[in-house]
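== Item description ==
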Amino acid sequence: MMNYFSRLRTQLFLITFSLLATSANAALPQGVDGNAMPTLAPMLEGATPAVVNIATEGRVKQQLNPMFADPRFRRFFNVPDQPAERKTSSLGSGVIVDAKRGLVLTNNHVIANAVQITVTLRDGRQLEAEVVGTDPETDVAVIKIPAENLVDIKPADSDALRVGDFVVAIGNPFGLGQTVTSGIVSALGRSGLGIEGYEDFIQTDASINPGNSGGALVNLRGELIGINTAIFSQSGGNIGIGFAIPINLAMQITEQLVDTGEVKRGYLGVSMQDISPALAEAFGLDQQSGAIINEVLENSPAIKAGLKTGDIVISIDGENIVNANDVANRIGILPVGEKIKFKVLRDGKQSEFVVTVDVRTKVSTDPRSVNELLQGVSVGDIEQDSPYFGKTEGAIVANVERGSVAWRSGLRAGDVITSVNKAPIKNLEQFLKAVDKKEDSLLFLILRGNAAAFIVLRK
């Protein structure tokens, strides 16, 4: 009997050992006996030449103590003349998306305030770039370099991404050469982060370190699926939560910037809000997904289509709506003239409405007639379909001409001016009154994305 159990234990041990060995061999790369090891190298060899380093140089006005502006004060205390401007520089990454035309896609924050942009290719060439157009609200920018022996990355369909897909982040930070990290898609459609005006991020655990902004997020076929733009971190280091702009969104913005130099936002003329638990109960809803229309503007595309206050938007073109921010993102990137189908709940019943997207009208004024420092600048009221509406008060910058005093001082389209010379302003009318003075300088407090900054305009 003992011999029987002894043989049985030996057989079980051999079977278990055999299974463990088989499992281990299946999980390990086959790099012996002439078999090739699994590698991403062939894919990366085709993709990395299209990822470039971007170095910028800018100049911003110095905000000096008023006493230093008095020459008598400087002479009395022997204070040297203070420079009116200081140089700024930044480093980031970019992706060549059209080799024939020399188009490079990057983040707006990488080239903001730049007066000189230098692109370094993987082969060491350094090329001067010019700005084609920028869109601060999505943090997308397009620059152009000489189209000579360039390699580009072809975009994939980012709408086809799924949570769990493997991705690779490629950057060219700090002039050190390419860096490559890998991971998976950990979430889709991330919004409400306060990073940009329009947010529909791909979230990934592939490391997106400082300097990789504007770089490429690719799939395992080497196709471009996103533009790396931000990390979620309180220390500045990567903690496995990175965000990328979906390439479908980025390419839609790119096409508009190349064609017209600006992005025309889709306009419906409605204001929406999220569905809170209290509102869900009041409207007799079983869930909180969707968005409630709380105002429809007169003569707007929405009112012409039949939408009403109190309608609950549950889907657009067959895709379910999560919240009000989801609606703003979908509408804001649609081209003017596009027809979209809204499915709404009204009095407990589902109805469908077709709305034609119109251009967002701007009630804006060029204030150069009241202050020559604002030559080439146009501003307007914050409109109801703006991501800033209801969140802050002030006047929004509609356009800034390149090379103007305001441009050289750092003012950009999309900035919200919240105070003038330390006096808060609520709207366009108050802004125009505040700048209607023949002063030698203007001090603006602006809001750009989720960051505030002072900007000084001087002759």
In short: The first helix runs from residue 2 to 27. The chain has ten helices and 27 strands.
